Amino acid sequence: MDAIADEAVADDNRLPADVESQPLVRAAAGLQPLLRELHDEIEREQRFPRALVEKMREAGLYRMVIPRSLGGYQADALTYLRAVELMAEGCGSVGWNLANNGIVQLVSLGLPDEGVHEIYAQSPSTPGAGTAVETLPAATVQRLGAAAAEAVRAGRGRVGDRMLRDALLDHVAIVISTGDEEIPVRQSMIQAVLRMGFMSTDGHGQITVRIGGKWVGLAAEHGSVWLQTTPSLTIHMAK
User: Fold this and answer.
1) φ and ψ of 133, to 5 deg
2) CATH number, domain 3-120
3) Within 10 A of 235 (CB to CB), how many other CB atoms are there?
4) Rounded to whole angstroms, how far apart are CA atoms 105 and 233?
5) pLDDT tens by residue, 89-148
6) How far apart are CA 131 and CA 133, in angstroms?
7) How far apart are CA 159 and CA 155, in angstroms?
8) Letter string b/e over residues 138-161, b meaning 16 or more CB atoms within 10 A of that residue's CB
9) pLDDT tens for residues 22-52?
């Protein structure tokens, strides 16, 4: 682990005696009326209003886990969790997003220090982000996953069964076209969502396909999985 990540966990065991008095917690509580007011709009549009993002940024909620050396608050775990809890009470989607943003930021601190500085050079409030590009019926995703699993079971014990399994996992089960690009959703992502229990067992609901840089994600009711897309390979023959 690099120096910045070490700093971020150095005083994890120092918890506040009165978490409700912490400025970040008070700021989160103060945003609850706005969250309740925006709840229907957020659910309808499936995105945060820009004004809400700015309010959360001003409150310091996007830099709770960032080390002080980078301009963050380096909040203790209790303060972070209580702030997320209060935001979720106002609007569940906002709390979920804020919690995941903190996780993404904590993971990013494990990069080499130069990479961390590159990400947070402009602002310690740089959020982790992804863009929703399509929604899929959960039943369709379950059907695709079940068909692949059955094919693997049918070939088990035969010559080449491992090759079949690997080929199925790498198979592009769905292609999302945005007009500018085609986004592959591989069977390995579908299997991950199913096997990790991220989808409802009743087959209801929707799965959101998201992109973030070179990553493609499937966001289900209880969690999401991400896979980095690989660039195309071009071979030039030597003259």
Assistant:
1) -115, -15
2) 1.10.540.10
3) 4
4) 31
5) 999 989 988 988 888 788 778 777 887 888 788 888 877 666 778 889 989 999 998 898
6) 6
7) 8
8) beebbebbeebbebeeebeeeeee
9) 999 999 999 999 999 999 998 888 778 889 9
Structure tokens at 24: 């970040």
Long-range CB pairs of 17-20, under 8 A, 24+ apart, other chains included:
19/78, 19/79, 19/82, 20/82
Euclidean distance between CA atoms 217 and 210, whole angstroms:
5
DSSP 140-154: HHHHHHHHHHHHHHH
Residue pair 130/148 in contact by the 8 Å Cβ criterion: no
* Token pair recorded at residue 215: 């990553």
CA 21 to chain centre: 29
Task: Quote the radius of gyration of the chain (alpha carbons, Å).
Answer: 21
Predicted structure pTM score: 0.56
Half-sphere exposure of 65 (CA within 13 A, CB side): 25
Partnered with residue 224 across adjacent β-strands are: 219
Tokens of 145: 């996953």
Return the structure tokens found at 158.
Answer: 């035969």
Round to whole Å and give the CA distance between 142 and 170: 17
Q: What is the pLDDT of residues 66-91, one digit of tens each?
A: 999 999 999 999 999 999 999 999 99
Domain boundaries, the chain: 3-120, 131-228
